Amino acid sequence: MRHGKALREAQLVLSAALARPADATGPVPRDVALGLFRRHLSRIQQSVRDSFESQSLSGVEAASQLSALTDGLIVALHEYTVSRLADEADPAEPPQAISIGATGGYGRGLLAPFSDIDLLFLTEEAPSPSVLGAIEFILYFLWDLGLKVGHATRTVAQCIEEAAVDTTVRTTLLDARLLSGDAALFAMFQARYIVACMEAGPAGFIADKQRERSLRHERYGESPFLVEPNIKEGRGGLRDMQTLYWLCRYVFGRGEPRQLVGIAAQGADQAGGGLLTEQEAKRARRSWDFLWTVRFHLHYIAGRAEERLTFDMQPVVGARMGYTRHGRQVGVERFMRHYFLTAREVMRLTHVLEPAVLRQALGTPAQAGETDAAMRAAGFMLSDGQILPAPETDFDRDPIRMLRLLALARERNLPLHPMAMHELIRCERRAATLRGDPEAAALLLSLICGDRPARREAAAAAGREAPTVPPRDRKQPAPVEVPGRPHGARWLHVLNETGLLGRLIPPWSRIVGQMQFDTYHVFTVDEHTIEAVRILGTLEAGALANETPVANGLVEDLQSRRALYVAALLHDIAKGRGGDHSELGSELALEICPQLGLTAEETETVSWLVLHHLLLSQTAFRRDIDDPKTILDLADTIQSPERLKLLLLLTIVDMRAVSGKVWNAWKAALLRELYTRVAEVLAGGLATTERDIRVARAKDEATALLQEDGFSEAETERFLSLGYGGYWLSFDSEAHQRHARMIRDSEQRASALTVETQPLPARAVTEVTVYTNDHAGLFSHIAGALAVAGASIVDARIHTMTNGMALDTFWIQDATDGTFDAPHRLARLSSLVEQALAGRLDLAGEISKASRGVMARRMRAIHVPPRVVIDNRASNTHTVIEVNGRDRPGLLHDVTNAMSQQGMQIASAHITTYGVRAVDVFYVKDVFGLKVSNERKLHDLREALLLVLTRAEEAVVLPASGAVRRSKNGTEAA
């Protein structure tokens, strides 16, 4: 349906229904008219929806048609209002002209299903009582129709005055168009507004829109690659394209529509009058329409003005847009990659178009006097403290200059001029010719690694940005600079955004915009990688000394610095290819590193680091590092102290780059302990196999502390006789001292149960120790009580003493991964443990209550396949069971309860969560204290655990399977 035809039909249908019957004495009553308008509104909304969902209309076409049909409704309502109030008008009141205009997005002729309808009621002078009454009638009528209306009532003079002092008003009026009323009055307003804008000049408006955009990005995320993006306000979203449109509209005026460079009100129809190439204009049209299509789907699915692509929305929108599984990549990941590549395209469009608009509005950048001879000879110049190619420099003819420009900017710590980004993006395809060029490889490697920072300037280096330049005149554009990206990451960001990195390293292009549909990774793979390089630079600068003291010391004297930076760049280079990305990435590193100019030794080191970049984290968080075999196996794999250093540093930056919530003091402590033990073996110190010597040493240290604490010789001997060897190797001497006090006090009171809590702020955990009679299911009951108390268990050690008592230790955190240390919560926790062990607490019921409302609907959209892995080779003394399932309150209780029912004795538990996925590892023995080797027993154990995990997943996923449903009023909800 053509827009003009749709508008005419809407007006004719509604006008006919509202026409006064020949025998009537007045207009149609308001309640009758309201019913007519409601039915008409429902018809036009459903018509647009049906056409859009049948793919007869694209997103932009649907937005345009919905706007045109809404125009007809507003016009008909104005006509009805005039006739309705005509008889009530005061004859003595002189008639006053009024115009009704559409502003904002509606003014551009684009309207989303649940967006506000922005109206301007325009008068030449202060509105009379009858005009105010008509405006009030219209607004209340629209509200009764259920529409959201943004409105303003202004005179022409007020519009001009407010636009002069408020950029938001000036922007809103930029797209004002007449809907109904006095056309001459509206034309006069438009003429005066254009004159006022011309007199004000573009500089102030441009600066205000750039500042507004910066604040918006700061609020919604500087990165466009957040895995739950805001498609309207986020970086690379619709608002960024609208900002470009506003700049073009303001600079080129309403009289030259062919200059509206690709994003005019009806979409990207023009090539931009020379500002955009035809290919760039085509990509702009494609991006504009894609984002509007996604927005329409979001609104219809949510039944409201939803602008965020949350996890529960992503698979539904992707499916509606036709994205299905392709190979190993599921449809939702293909859809989200298309979105992220579109967001990147919008960013590139901004870098290409905005400088061109500014150049026409403000003039060609003048070469600054501070441009020295060396810079001129290299073909570059300074303008307002920013570096850009000189007019005679042609990147297309001499592409190596693109890397020389970035290298010089890095060397002198200069921000890039917008025109520099403009030229880099325009010529990025030529970078492919530089593959194999030794100079290009050297320049790229220097951009990645940067210079080794001076440690004495650590704090300054970590937060240092581009050097301060003199305050700019408002006529000058803001520099294209990304804050918070020191060292190599700053330039990697530029290389990635311009597309140069994908041209120079082809495998990189495959991870651009690549996401994993889970709640653990908050960035796409390419953005996560750049963040890892940024953190490595920050660590090397010494800015993380307090958080990672061991790593801070190791990074000072690295022998393989370049290898570490390149390993950080390539550690996830093979994600999304199917198979083990560590193995595939290791093979790719063998091809890429020589092309970057690394030596054979460095290449082998990088390949090894990529292959094993998950080794330390998986061992620290999923294995018992007190088990001698764990340490020996790790040492056999690593073999070199230098490799151990590199692997620890790579592990730290990889984990911290996932998200701000992944890294905490507890994980830091585990990695530090693991590093220390492996380093001891690699250095030829005390062998891990000399278990008796280590036990004796632990007892000697405990004895010295107990004697200082006033223990008698008999009390000391009593305590030393209680623990088996594994106990003495699982705790430090201070913990042994606390346990001795606890056991002594418990025996003196003849207490059947003792619960002690010890907050450990340095590790961000609270240690909970339970001393009681050992019995089957003890671990499960305690775990259940802790879940009811709202605690999250991150690690556990279970020890049965020689006197038949159990000494079970749990390390817990609160829901925010912080220390569970509030006194009232600790008191409740102890009480719940006591009730659970006494059988006075309905654990299943209480856990069910605690679980209600915990799992947000958007998290339920993520499927977590249950998985159980049983390994009898990881330990010489225990069977190791790895359980993968959806994280939830009480999971540990249910799993360990199933183990107890199968006759398993749990020695230790290691709890790790990756978003909504829990990976829990248990070291177990059978009832005879031996490894479980019977195949039938192992099969039954696996099936029992899978049953627990499957039931839990079904309980969450099945309600969410109806996430898209038709509600009573016909609206889809998610």
CATH class of the domain at 3-200: Alpha Beta
SSE-based structural type? alpha+beta
Q: Oligomerization state of this entry?
A: single chain
Radius of gyration: 34 Å
**Main beta-sheet annotation:** 8 strands, antiparallel
CATH architecture of the domain at 3-200: 2-Layer Sandwich
CATH-derived topology of the domain at 3-200: Beta Polymerase, domain 2
Shape: globular
Q: What share of residues are in beta strands?
A: 5-15%
The overall pLDDT average reads 84
Superfamily (CATH H level) name of the domain at 3-200? Beta Polymerase, domain 2
How many runs of DSSP E, i.e. beta strands? 16
Count of alpha/pi helices: 40
Low-confidence stretches: 255-273, 456-486, 959-974
Distance between the termini: 30 Å
Query: What share of residues is helical?
Result: 40-55%
Biggest sheet strand line-up: 7-8-10-9-13-14-12-11
Could you walk me through the main structural features you see in this protein, from its secondary elements to its overall organization?
The chain has 974 residues and is α+β, with helices and mostly antiparallel strands. Among the domains are: 3-200, Beta Polymerase, domain 2, CATH 3.30.460; 206-362, Up-down Bundle (Four Helix Bundle (Hemerythrin (Met), subunit A)); 502-682, Hypothetical protein af1432 (Orthogonal Bundle), CATH 1.10.3210; 862-958, ACT domain (Alpha-Beta Plaits, 2-Layer Sandwich). It is 54% helix and 11% strand. The chain contains 40 helices and 16 strands. It has an 8-stranded antiparallel beta sheet, with helices on both faces. Helix 5 (129-144) links the parallel strand 2 and strand 3. Helix 29 (641-658) packs antiparallel against helix 30 (665-682). The longest helix is centred in the middle third of the chain and has 32 residues, at 331-362. It is globular and about 110 Å long. Residues 525-641 form the HD domain. GO terms for molecular function: [protein-PII] uridylyltransferase activity; phosphoric diester hydrolase activity. Keywords: Hydrolase, Magnesium, Multifunctional enzyme, Nucleotidyltransferase, Repeat, Transferase. Residues 1-374 are annotated as: Uridylyltransferase. Residues 458-483 are annotated as: Disordered.
